[in-house]
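Hi L.,

You mentioned the student needs an example of a multi-chain input paired with its predicted structure. This one should do, with 1456 residues in total across all chains.
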Amino acid sequence: MSENLSNLSFRKGIVDNLFEKMGDAAQHDGTPSKEELAALAEEFLIGKATTYGATTFYDFMKPENRGKKVYVCNGTACVCAGKQNAVQEKLQQHFKKEEIGHITCLGRCHENGAFQYDGQNYSGDSADISKIITKKPAGRDNYHVEALGNPVLTTNFSMQEAQELLSNALQKSRDQLLDEIINSGLRGRGGAGFPMGIKLKSCKEEASDLKFIICNADEGDPGAYSDRYLLEQQPYAVLFGMIIAGYITGADWGVLYIRAEYPDAVTITKQAIEALRQADLLGFDILGHKNFNFDFKIIKAQGAYICGEETALINSIEGQRPEVRTRPPFPTQQGLFLKPTVVNNVETLAALPFIIKNGGTAYAKMGTERSKGTKLISLDSFFNKPGIYEVEMGTKLATVIEKLGGGFKSPVKAMQIGGPLGGIVPIEKIPDLTIDFESFAKEGFLLGHASIVCIPKDFPMINFLTHLMDFAQYESCGKCFPCRLGTKRAHEMLEKALYDNYKIDKALFDDLLTTLKEGSLCAHGGGIPLPVRNAMQYFEEELAGYFVNL
Amino acid sequence: MIAYINNQPYEYQQGETILNFVKRIQGEKSIPTLCDAPNLKPTGSCRICSVEVALKQGGPTKTVASCHTPIMEGSYIYPNSDSVQKLRKNIIELVLTDHPLECLTCEVNGNCELQDVAARVGIREVRYPQGANHLHRQKDLSHPYMTSDLSKCINCYRCVRACDEVQGQFVLSMAGRGFDAHIIKGMDESFFASDCVSCGACAQACPTSAISDVFQSKSIVDADKTRTVCTYCGVGCNLEVSHRGDKVISIRAPYDAAVNGGHTCLKGRYAFKFYDHPDRLTDPLIKRNGQFEKVSWDEAYNYITDKLNHYKNTTGPDSIAGISSSRCTNEENYLMQKFFRAVLHTNNIDGCARICHSPTALGMQRTFGTGAATNSVSGIQHTDCIMVIGANPTAAHPVTGAKIKQFAMKSDKTLIVIDPRRTELAKYATYHLALRPGTNVAVLNMMMYYIVTEGLTDDDFIRVRTEGYDDFLNKIKALDVDKMEAISGVDKDWVREAAIAYATADAAMSFHGLGVTEHSQGTFAVMQIANLAMMTGNIGRKGVGVNPLRGQNNVQGAADMGVQPHQGAGYLDVTNADIQAKYRAFYGVDVPTEVGYKIPEMFDAAIAGQLKAIWIIGEDVVQTDPNTQKVIKALENTELVIVQELFITETAKYADVILPGASFLEKSGTFTNGERRVQRVNQVVQPIGNTKADGQIIVEMMNRMGYAQPDYTPDGMLEEISQIVPFFAGIKWEELGINGKQWPVGKDGKDTQILHTDSFKRGKGYFEFHPFEETREIKNNGQEYPYILTTNRDLEHYNCGAMTRRTGNVEILGEDVLWIHPDDAAAKGIKDGDMVCLQSPRGKVDIKAHLTEDVNPGILSTTFHFPEIMVNNITSDEHCSEALCPEYKVVAVKIRKSKGKFKTLV
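Structure written out for the whole complex:
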C-alpha cells in the first residue's frame, strides 16, 4: 500500500471513485483498454503502472478476462457436488472455450451447477442454458431460511421499522448507543470475532473531519451465502447497522463493498438505499440531528478473494492493488484514504437492529459466555434441507446438521466449516462441537463465517486438498513471500502427488505449513495450513500413500 | 519504557519498531532483512525479519515481522530463537525455488542481499521438486542507463516503493497476483518506453540485480569509493563515486547524505561520462590564423601574461574583464576574483549569477540584509504550505523537486504553484496560478492585498521585526485588483484562496527560481516574496522562509566568494573605504575602488571598443546569454578572449586562447548549495590529459603576473578565505565532515540552518512596495510580436548541455522543442512535430513543435540546451532594472509554420 496513492485517490474520494472507474472501463470488453488506463492514470496523477497493475489483479478486469462471456462456478461446494463438468460441457455447445471463464462461488451452494451469464447468476434447476441465452430470465433460487430460536437476523426488518427504530435510536447519545453495543458482546462475524464495540469506540475516539463505515460484503468464502441472504433479503438491517455505526463514530460515509458475484445483492441494496433517501434518512442533518451527515456508496468488487481481508478491501476501494496492509496502523486509525474507518461484516452490522431495539443485554443473554448472540449458518446441497439457518451461539453442531439440515442426502466423510481457511471436520467430531468461536478453536477447527461444505465419502481427500491449495495459491495477493511462494509450492506438491506418482516429503511439507502459518502477513497464508493439517490428522490413512512418512 | 531482548532489559524509544530497537541495541546485522531499506517505509513482505515476542518471560510467544511491529511495553523479544531461525531458513528456501542459482556470474555477486541473507540463515539445499518459476524472463536493456533482469526479482517491492516514496513517479508497480505477481514498468513495457525519469532510485533500492544500471553500480569490482558533491545543480547531492585507478565506474547516492539521503537524479547518478569523453580538451590551445593549435602551458601562460600586462599598462585594468564559473569550487572562484582585484586591479569580475539569481541576492539583501536562502530544504518536513513560484524543480532541481512532490501528494498540505506553465508540480498543486509571463509582481501584490483585506497579517511580527510597513500597507490597500487580474490573467478568487492558504498555514515556505528573477521586475518580485513572508511571520523558524533554488552547483558560492563587480569576497562593498582598507591589508596590494562591469555591461563595453580582454571560465555565454548575435559581436570585438573549459563550447569557438580545466571529478574544493551548505568536493581521479584544476591555473597565472600565491589546495585556500569572508570564519577543510556546514559558520565551528531567527541581518526587515510595470519587451514589441516565449530547462540536460549532451542523457532527450497550445498551433496550421519559425525583433530560429495544453494559448515555451537551435538568438537585451539579470522569460515573438528546417537565420 502506498500512502501517496491513498492520498491521490482521496482527491476524488469515494464519489468520483478510481476503483469504480476502473470497473466501468472493464465493462465493455472484460478489461480496460490501455488508453482508458492511461487516462485514469493522468486524471488521478498516479502513473500508468498503478492503474494497469491494479486492474491486472482482478478476475473481472485483468487482460485475460477479455472476451469472457460466461463464468462457471468453481467454488468448493460446486466442486464437491461434482456438477460443474456437465455445466461446462453444456455451455461449450453455445460458447467458445475461450469465452468461458470461471468464478469462485456464486453463493449457490445449496443447489450447485452455478454459473454467471450476462451479469445474472443461475444454478440448479434454473439453469436451462438454451433458454437462458435466448431469454436471459432472472436467475432466482430458493433455499430454506429458518431460525432455531429467537430470530435476530432472519426476522423481517422493513424500511418502516428501520425508520422508526432510527428515530428512536437517535434520541440517544452516541455513547449510550455505543454502550449498548459494547454490552451486547457482539463479535465480528467475518471470521476473526473481534468485538464490534471496541472497534467503534476506537474509531470514535480518533479526531478526523472524515470517517468511514465499510460493510465488508465480499463474502468470498466458497460455501458461504449468508451475507448474500442478508443483502438480498434484509438490506435494511445491514444499512441500519451502518447508519448507527456512522452515528456513533461520527462517520460520514457508509461504503458497501459487494462482490461482483452477487449482482442481485448490488441491485437490491441500491434500491434500499434509494428508499432510505426518499424517506429523508440520508444526507445532511439526518432526522434533524445537527452535524449527523451520512450517505451510502456501493462499490462493486471485481473478483479477488483477498478483498475480504479488510486492509486489502480498503486498498481495493482506493484503486490500489488489493494487497494486505501492515498493522498498525489499524483501519480505525488510518483506514480508507488514511481516515479512521470501521470495517464490519454484513452479518455483524445486521445484528444492530436487534441490539438497538432490545438493548445490548437482551442480545448478550443469547449465546455462550464468550460468544454472544446468534449466528447464521450456510448449508450446502449435501443436506436434505440446504439453506440459511440462524442459531444461538452454543447450539450443538449435531442439531444444525440433523434438526435443521435434515441430515445428509448422501454419505459424507467430513465437512469444511468456515470457508477455505476453516477446518476440515470429520463426521466423528460432530458431537464434540457447538456453534461458537471457542468450541471450534478448542477442537482445532475454526468457526469462521460458519459455512458448511460437505466432502462426500467418495471424494478423495487428496483431490480436496489439491483443490483447496489451488484456491489458496490462486487467490494469494502475492505480497508476502511465504504465501506467494508457499501456497504455490504446496499446490504443486499436492498436484504432483495426485497425478504424477510423486510422494510428498512429510518433513518438508510440515516445514512449509509452519512457514505459511507463522510467516504469512495475513490470515490467508496463515490460515490455509489449518484444514490441511486437519486432513493429515483425521485422514492419515487415506493420505498416507501420497506422503513419505506420514 | 523497557522491553527485553533475550530477557535483557533495554530502553526503547517512542514509536520504535522491534527491528529498529534490536538493531540499535545489537547492531545492524542482528536481524536479517530483505524488503527493508533505509529510506523506505516498512512493507512487511519478506517476513525474514520475523522474531518471537512474548508478553512475559517464558510465556507463549507469537511470531511477528519486526520491521512493522511496534514494541509493546515490557514485552520479551527473542530475535534469533530456534523457531525464527528455522522460519527464516524456510522462507529463503522458498525464495530460492524461483531464483537463479548462478551467483558466480551474477552482476551483484558478493554484494547481493539475498546471497548474504541466504548465507546467514545457512541454506544448504532446496528440497522442493522442480516447479513453476520465472527464470525465463528476458532482460530489459532498452534504456541508456536503467536495466532489469526480472528473473532475479524476489518481489520485495523495494523498487516500487522507491519509485513511489522517494521519486514519486509511479513508474513501477506489480501486475498480476499471487505467484504471478511481477514487477512492471508502466503498462508492462520497457524502461525506455515507460515514463521513467531515470533517477536510479529503484536500482539502488533493489537487493539483487533484478533492477540495475548499465554501470553495474552494485557490482563489486576492485574499486575505491570517494564521496564528493554533484556538479549539476544547486541542490548539492552527495555522490559516492566508485573508481578504479583513474577510471570512474559508477555513482551511487549515500544514505547518510543530509542533502539527498540516498537519492539523486539521472544527471548526478548517471551523466558522468562527459569527464573522459573524446571531446574533452586536454591541452591549452592558441588560435593562430583562425585555427586552434596545441601549445604548452608555459606558452599559453606567457601569451596571456604578455597580453594582459599590455592591456593593464596601456588601456588600463578596466579594459580587462572576467567571468568566473559557478561550476567551479569556492576556492577557485575566490582565486578568480582575487586575480582580477589584487593582480589586475579591476572590479570587472562577474559570474553567471548575473543571468540567474542576481535579483535574488539583491532583493533579499534589500529586504533582509542577506541574499541567500533563509532556511533549509529539510524545512519541507516541517511546513504546511509551500509556494513554488517561477520554478520547475522536478526538472531543474530534481531531488528537491521530488521532496516537494512528496509534500504535495499529502492530502493535508497545500502547494501553491505560480507559473505560466503546467509544470509537473503544478499538476499536483492545490492552487496553480498560471499567470502571463512577466506578471509575478502583479500576482504577488494581489496576494498581499488579500492577506491584508482578510486580516491575516502577523501584526506582532511586523511591529517587532520590520520597518516601512505603513507606507507599504497604504500602497497595497490602494491596489486595483481587478486590473491586476486582467493583467496577469489569473482569476482573483484563486489568488485570494491561495493567499489565504499561505497566510493561515502554521508554517509556509516559498521556493523560487528563475521564473521570478529573469524579468525586468526580477528584483522587485523577489522583494515581494520576501514581503509576503514577513507580513505573515514566515521568517526565522522551521519550515518557513524564502528559499531561492539556486541554479548551478556553486552559484551561491561564486557570489559568496566575491564574483560580483560591486562586492568583494564576503559581500563586502568595494566602494567602501574601510572595506577597501581591509582588502588592501589582506591581499597585500592596492585594490580597485570603482564598481566594475556586470556581464551585460562587459558586452556593451566590448562592442564600444572599451574592453580589450576577457577571461571566461566554464560559462558558455554564446549559447546561454541572451541575444546571441550581440554576444558574438562583443567577443569578436574583444582582442583577447580566454576561455577556460572542458569542451569547445560555442563560446570557446570565439576564443583566442583555450585553457583546459579539470572537471569536478578531477579536483578538490568546496561547493555551496542553495541552502548555504558548504560541502567537500573530493578529487576522484587525476585530471585528464594535461588539464589542471581551474584553481591551479589561476594560481599559476597569479604567480606569472607577479603575485605570490601558494599552489591550489582546498585546505590552504579555505584557511585564507575564512580570514576574509566573515560567514566562513569557522570553516575548516578537515571539519566539514561528510555533510558540510551551512554558513554563517562562527569561529567556534557552529553552523546555521535558519537565518534571521531573532533579527534580520540588516536589523529590521524592510518593506518596500513596487507596483507592477509592463516590460518594455511587451510595450515595444507586443503589437507586432503577439506571442510570449518563455525559456526553461529540461530534466535531462544542464544549461548549455556541454556536459550532458556528451552522456547517455542525449539518448533520452535529444533536442529542444517548442511547447505550443493546440489552439495556437491550429490557428497557424502547425501540427505536432512540425518545424515552427519563431521570430523576435532580434532574429529567428526554427524549432520543432510539441502541442500541449500545459501552456496557455498565446504562451510558448522552450529550452536552450542544444546549439542546433540556439534559441538565445531571439531573446532580448531587456533585463532586471536593478540587478541587470536578462529577461529570458518574456520574449515577444511571432510564429509561423516553417518552410523548411534550417539551423538559425539572423
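You could point out the following to them. DSSP finds 29 helices and 39 strands in chain B. The radius of gyration of chain B is 29 Å.

Best wishes,
N.
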